[in-house]
Specification:
12 helices; alpha/beta; Rossmann fold; single chain; about 10% strand; about 250 residues
C-alpha cells in the first residue's frame, strides 16, 4: 500500500514520529480542511518534539545518575537549613554558563546527593553534557588511566563536560597519587566547566581526605574561586524514612 511505502521511506530518513502519526494526522487534516502547510507544520512540530525527548533521554542515560531525583520532589520543609529560593535559582543553570561550582557540605542523609542529581537532571533537560560519578570511582578511573597511558584522553573527555557531579567526596581517604590526579582534573576544568561536589567533610578537614594539606589547599583554591556553597545542618532523610517504616509495622 502507498501508506506503507511512505512509512518505510520516513523511517529511512529517521523521521520515526512522522511515520507513526502521519495517517491519523492526514485524516484529521482532511476532515477539518487544514492547509497543506498547516498539515506539514503539525508533522514537523511533532518530529522536533520527539527528537528533543530522545535527545534529553540519551543525555540522562549518559549522565549515569544512580537514580532520578527532582527539585520538585525535595522536602525543603524537613531541611530548613537549605535555602529553597537559592536552590531553585541554581536550577535555572546560570552557574553552568559562568563555569561556576556548587559544593554541598553536610552529614550523611541530609539531601546532598538528591540536590546534586536534581540539578544535573535540569542540565540534561537543557541538553547540557553531564556526568555523575562517585569520588572513589572517579579516582580509581583516573589512576587506571594513568597506568594504561590514557590519562590525557580521560582528562579531555572529562574536560568537555559542561557539568561534572562528584558525589561522596570524603567518605574514603585518597592517596597522594590519586590526589595529584584529582588536582589535575580540577585544574583542567577551572573556569571552563562547572563541578558539583558533595562532601561530608568541612573544608578544614580536606587535608585529611587528600592526605596532603598542600594539595587540598590547591584544590580548594580553584574550586572555591567561583563557587556556591550550601552547608546543610539537619536530620537525616534516611533515618526519618526508617523510623517511619518502623512505626508503620
Amino acid at each position: 500500500m502507498e501508506t506503507e511505502r511512505i512509512k518505510e521511506q520516513l523511517k529511512r530518513l529517521s523521521l520515526y514520529r512522522i511515520a507513526e502519526i502521519f495517517e491519523e494526522e492526514a485524516a484529521k487534516a482532511s476532515k477539518v480542511k487544514t492547509s497543506y502547510i498547516g498539515f506539514l507544520a503539525r508533522l514537523v512540530e511533532e518530529e522536533v518534539l520527539a527528537k528533543t525527548d530522545r535527545s534529553i533521554n540519551a543525555r540522562i542515560a549518559k549522565a549515569k545518575f544512580p537514580q532520578i531525583k527532582t527539585i520538585e520532589g525535595f522536602d525543603f520543609s524537613f531541611q530548613p537549613s537549605i535555602p529553597e529560593a537559592f536552590i531553585k535559582e541554581l536550577a535555572e543553570l546560570s552557574f553552568i554558563g559562568k563555569a561556576e561550582n556548587v559544593l554541598f557540605l553536610g552529614p550523611p542523609g541530609v539531601g546532598k546527593t538528591h540536590l546534586s542529581i536534581a540539578l544535573g537532571l535540569k542540565a540534561c533537560e537543557k541538553r547540557k553534557r553531564v556526568l555523575f560519578t562517585y569520588a572513589n570511582e572517579l579516582i580509581e578511573q583516573l589512576m587506571a588511566a594513568r597506568v594504561n597511558g590514557s590519562f590525557g584522553k580521560k582528562l579531555q573527555i572529562l574536560g568537555r563536560l559542561e557539568l561534572l557531579i562528584i558525589d561522596e567526596l570524603g567518605y574514603l581517604p585518597i592517596n597522594k597519587e590519586g590526589a595529584n590526579l584529582f588536582f589535575q582534573l580540577i585544574s583542567k576544568r577551572y573556569e571552563k566547566g562547572s563541578i558539583i561536589i558533595s562532601s561530608n567533610k568541612p573544608f578544614e578537614e580536606w587535608g585529611e581526605i587528600f592526605c596532603d594539606d598542600v594539595i587540598a589547599s590547591a584544590i580548594l583554591d580553584r574550586l572555591l574561586h567561583h563557587s556556591h556553597i550550601i552547608a546543610i545542618n539537619g536530620p537525616s532523610y534516611r533515618t526519618k524514612e526508617k523510623m517511619g517504616a518502623t512505626s508503620n509495622n
